[in-house]
Automatic annotation (TrEMBL):
<dbReference type="InterPro" id="IPR017871">
    <property type="entry name" value="ABC_transporter-like_CS"/>
</dbReference>
<dbReference type="GO" id="GO:0005524">
    <property type="term" value="F:ATP binding"/>
</dbReference>
<dbReference type="InterPro" id="IPR050093">
    <property type="entry name" value="ABC_SmlMolc_Importer"/>
</dbReference>
<protein>
    <submittedName>
        <fullName>2-aminoethylphosphonate ABC transporter ATP-binding protein</fullName>
    </submittedName>
</protein>
<dbReference type="Pfam" id="PF00005">
    <property type="entry name" value="ABC_tran"/>
</dbReference>
<keyword id="KW-0997">Cell inner membrane</keyword>
<keyword id="KW-1003">Cell membrane</keyword>
<dbReference type="InterPro" id="IPR003593">
    <property type="entry name" value="AAA+_ATPase"/>
</dbReference>
<dbReference type="InterPro" id="IPR013611">
    <property type="entry name" value="Transp-assoc_OB_typ2"/>
</dbReference>
<keyword id="KW-0472">Membrane</keyword>
<keyword id="KW-0547">Nucleotide-binding</keyword>
<dbReference type="InterPro" id="IPR003439">
    <property type="entry name" value="ABC_transporter-like_ATP-bd"/>
</dbReference>
<dbReference type="InterPro" id="IPR027417">
    <property type="entry name" value="P-loop_NTPase"/>
</dbReference>
<dbReference type="InterPro" id="IPR008995">
    <property type="entry name" value="Mo/tungstate-bd_C_term_dom"/>
</dbReference>
<keyword id="KW-0813">Transport</keyword>
<feature type="domain" description="ABC transporter">
    <location>
        <begin position="5"/>
        <end position="235"/>
    </location>
</feature>
<dbReference type="Pfam" id="PF08402">
    <property type="entry name" value="TOBE_2"/>
</dbReference>
Amino acid sequence: MTTFLKIRDLWKSFGQFVALRDISLDVIEGEFLCFLGPSGCGKTTLLRAIAGLDIQTAGTIHQAGKDVSNLPPAERDFGIVFQSYALFPNLTISENISFGLENAGKNKAEVKKRVDELLQLIGLPEQRDKYPAQLSGGQQQRIALARAIATSPGLLLLDEPLSALDAKVRVHLRHEMTELQRKLKVTTVMVTHDQEEALSMADRIVVMNHGVIEQVGTPTEIYTDPVSLFVADFIGEMNQVPAEVTKEGEVRVGNRTLLCRTGDFAPGSKVIAALRPEDVIPHDKDVRLPGTPDVIETLQNTFDVVIKEMEFLGSFWRTSVSDEEAEGLDLTADFSINAVRRLSLAVGEKI
Ligand code: ATP
């Protein structure tokens, strides 16, 4: 794996305010990387520093082995797509796409060939003579993407490219953009605050908070092995249960003992135990679940609980359960429609 973008000890301040603190990061050639984090965490600032739209206060950026830390945007090799499509309203679609190609000194025939190719690639060959205002938001964003990759830049930067679109179009375009990225193998960095977008599109995710990187990992690593409570809580739903480590691999909650990964925490440590709602599995006392290793392991933490609330969310039931013996063991549990039907789960039932 070749490092394409090497960011080292990067700081960015706006006056007294420190927006990025000591960021070091390698972006691998050809990967799709997402910067994910809450509003104001510094994602856009980091993307703009990579583009040279803002110059960092300290630190360095190398792209394809070349020190670009102090180069203006025009001397860096990237294409960029913003949230607002930022197409030229008075130019046709093909003129919008060919803009950068003409600036790069391509002749007429080359430009026409490349524009045709790109319109084909984004699936809009019939729209070439229209103006941006005549297209839908999703179509305009595809044109913006075609314009960004027209000159085959080494790096594609995407700043919340889907967030202005409505939900259906967004999901559809997610798919198209990842497919296109994999086809072109262009190293891509996308900013998003939408965890689902990051999980579904990225090869790796950089989770940021308050100007620092909390964790870098594949979507499954970030989801199943969050390194901090912040990451655990920011991605997906997470139960947080105050607990005390009793020995390695075991915690106490109230007067209950649970098997739990305890990492580096010593016995006696007061901790927060974290548990995903979908990892709470319902069963009644008489029913044995099929004996897969996973299920046996899960069944080791078995308690009697009362169902307090149930909310139907379409593909599953979000449920609150409470263990009255163990103070503090109130959990959110996501139960499948099948499980709810099979066990006749209802509010007030004991399981
Ligand atoms: P969002 O998802 O809301 O766009 P973000 O993670 O992209 O958030 P940034 O835009 O990178 O956040 O901003 C990080 C912090 O730096 C914010 O607190 C913001 O107010 C501040 N900031 C960004 N640009 C400037 C600027 N030009 N001058 C002063 N402060 C700025």
